[in-house]
Amino acid sequence: MKIKKMILLFMVFIMFAEGLESWTGTASAYNPLEYRQNDYLVNILEDGDGQNRVFKFETPNIITASNTKLRLFINAREIEPEEYTIDYNNYAITINKAPDPGAELSIKYLIIPTFEWGEGISGGSYIGNALSYGDGSTKVFKLTTKYMINSSKKVILRIGGRQVPNSEFTFNHENYTITLLEKRRAPLAEEEIYFYIPKTSITGTQTSPGGTIEEPISGGTTVSPPSGETGESPVSGGAGSTGTEAEPEFQLLGGESYPGSITLNKNYTLTVKITIQAKQPAYTSYLMIKNASGEVVKRIRVKAGSTSTYSLKKIGLPSGGYYVYLKTINQSGGLAASLPIFVPINNEVKHIKVFISGYMQAYAQAPVNTNGNVLVPFRSIFESLGAKVEWDSTTQTVTATKEGKTIVLTIGSNIAYVNGVAITLSAAPQLINGTTMVPVRFVSEALGGLVEWNVAANSVVVFQSEPTISTTVESEKEAESDATSSSPILTKISKGITAPTDIVFVIDVTGSMGGVIDYIKETVKSFVDSVPAGSNFAIVAYRDINYVDQNKNLEFYSFTNNKNELKTNLDQLKAAGGGDEPESGLDAIHMAMNKLSGRTNAKRIIFITDASVHDKGTAPAKSGFTLKQVIAELKTNKVVLDAIAPKSGSAYKQIIQLVNSNKGKLYDIDDASTLLLNK
User: Fold this and answer.
1) Tens digits of per-residue pLDDT, 185-224?
2) What integer is the mean pLDDT of 478-484?
3) Are 304 and 225 a contacting pair, CB within 8 Å?
């Protein structure tokens, strides 16, 4: 083999070596001798032997005579098309004359939308995918891929050969869409768009793009505990431990394949069941509740491997429309979510409510029930459903039009007309308190809507298509909250503070911490009010804070005695996933002590995490400190450290040493739940 080809093969091997070992278990793995060259894919064939004229080639892409053009090269010289023929059915090339012994053969073909290839980027192993070309206006693109993806993290988007900053686009791995945000212009006409997925995010292949799973790497929907029999994280770390830490792979499927369910019961309760056996910190599961605008209003931790029932009244939601779904996440951002269901909340059950596309309607004349038929003001219902409406006072007739459909109703008549066809109504339109009222079910269904009567909420629910809402981490914008609830944990901590104190909240911002951060946000105002005057508050955020705002690994929010400013600082903490960065709880505590240095008030740290602290003795690449060093610093600086953390497992074994060394207390992180505030 010639030196030139040996060098080429070596370069290709190096490009794909990382990750191939874990990749070999998947179906239809990519041939490592096919690679991207600008806007082409190059496929290296067998060398010539002086006799063979037929050469097979392998590619993951479906190539036909009409979708792209194959070009043949021998010793880097392009061969004229009349010198060979291509069998597209069998992926073979027949050359008129057998190439000389040792001749280097390759084919090249232009990348078109939906083609995929393997590519090494910044030391990582990725699958590239060509999206549809730009047209100057489109900003939402559909990913057509043969692979199942379980995370939206670490993806890369390139438009016209340039990488797009992560802050300018989002990727929804559940519905396979890439959306350019407002700050990013739409790609120009015919501009190439390439999207890259890390191989670590791929769980298996599909029978066809968007189809069912053919060979999941995880072996189905069952998740085995990462280590031991308890399902705890494989992080070692008690005193004297010499092991190293390992990050468990995320292995759950989302959507219809999610291993759990939510049932809305007639007695206004939700029954939640998760069949997997997965415990935090390796995996954390939540019952997610979003309002009609898609904002998160509650995030309740759910115990995996069990069934729980929650009272909607005790959860304390205001009247309105909500979407609920189950979510399981690990600290590195692996995410699986169930299909959302819509739940109407009506805290005034004596009064009928109407929900359209998730939003509770407000009518000047309240809906009325006539013999089992709910009537609503005609103009409001038609306009909410996107129809134009006219009222003829002479004939007392309502005419509504939408997308080629015309509906005519007359007060007092149980005959309506849809595009001229007579329909018998079960309840005639009526004039009530000067308002023309029409039957909501007939009107909604006549305009193509889906109508449901919710007994528990005494409400009519109307959707013009199946209810849906995004379940990605990126979509989880927090709703504004004025909650001043008293926190059992923070209240207990405040009782031990009898003099003005400078307090630093040290908060782990990994993906599994979303519910705990919500809890702190909702209860911190009450805590600030309960500690002695003259106290000041600061925040050190660590771990995945850098995946939200691209900040440094450890983020410091300055001291303040203003509870609203503190709440604003907390609102900047968005629990998200990312790689396990070289930063630890010990590093964060050390930073907090530096910030407390020289301050005249008493000093206190409230440490909040669901994971081990990354002791330098067990994770030298992730921490610059040992437990012994930090314990000594706490004592020297007279800093009291309280912790909201697990009360079992490897995290407990480490954190209890920090707490006991300085007369602090450990509070169970399982008690840090917004649900407890409503009981």
Assistant:
1) 899 888 899 999 998 888 887 655 543 333 332 323 333 3
2) 58
3) no
pLDDT tens for each residue of 360-388: 999 989 999 988 899 999 999 999 999 99
In whole angstroms, what is the distance from residue 19 CA to residue 126 CA? 9
Lowest-confidence pick of 364-373, 494-503, 607-616: 607-616
User: What is residue 499's predicted lDDT score, i.e. its pLDDT?
Assistant: 92
Compute, in degrees rounded to 10, the torsion defined by CA atoms 585, 586, 587, 588. 50
Distance, in Å, from the CA atom of 215 to the CA atom of 211, rounded to the nearest integer, reads 12
From CA 259, how far away is CA 276, in angstroms rounded? 6
Classify the phi-psi angles of 191: left when phi > 0, otherwise alpha if psi is within -120 to 50, otherwise beta: beta
DSSP, residue by residue, 273-320 = EE-S---TTT-EEEEEEEETTS-EEEEEEE-TTEEEEEEHHHHTPPSE
191 φ/ψ angles, rounded to the nearest 5 degrees: -75, 130
Pairing of strands 459-463, 353-356: parallel
Query: What pLDDT was estimated at residue 229?
Result: 31
Rounded distance, CA 35 to CA 30, Å? 10
What is the spatial distance between Cα 665 and Cα 494, in angstroms, rounded to a whole number?
Answer: 12
* Closest C-alpha among 118, 117, 131 to residue 191: 131
Looking at residue 219, what is its pLDDT? 29
Q: And the tokens for 228?
A: 């031991």
Note whether 355 and 461 are within 8 A (CB): yes
Distance CA 269, CA 312 (A): 5
* pLDDT exceeds cutoff 50 at 296: yes
Highest mean pLDDT among 11-25, 29-43, 105-119: 105-119
Which structure tokens are listed for 211? 């189809």
Cα distances from 678 to residues 122, 439, 524, in angstroms, run: 48, 37, 16
The token duo for 164 is: 């797009």
Question: What number of other Cβ atoms are within 10 A of residue 583's Cβ?
Answer: 21
Place of tokens 């203003």: 562
Enumerate residues 6+ apart whose C-beta is below 8 A from 166.
Answer: 550
Neighbour tally for 514: CB within 10 Å = 25
Residue 124 has pLDDT above 90, yes or no: no
Give SS3 for 458.
Answer: coil
- Euclidean distance between CA atoms 487 and 676, whole angstroms: 9
pTM: 0.54
State the chain's mean pLDDT as an integer: 81
- Length of the chain, please? 679
Q: Give the C-alpha separation, 489 to 669, whole Å.
A: 9
430-432 β-sheet, strand order: 368-370, 373-377, 435-439, 430-432
CA 185 to chain centre: 24
* Range scoring the smallest mean pLDDT among 97-111, 198-212, 324-338: 198-212
Write out the two tokens for 96: 């008129």
Structure tokens at 321: 């429309």
Stated as kind and residue range, the H or E segment containing 130 is: strand 124-130
677 SS3 class: helix
Enter the tokens of residue 239.
Answer: 């005193």
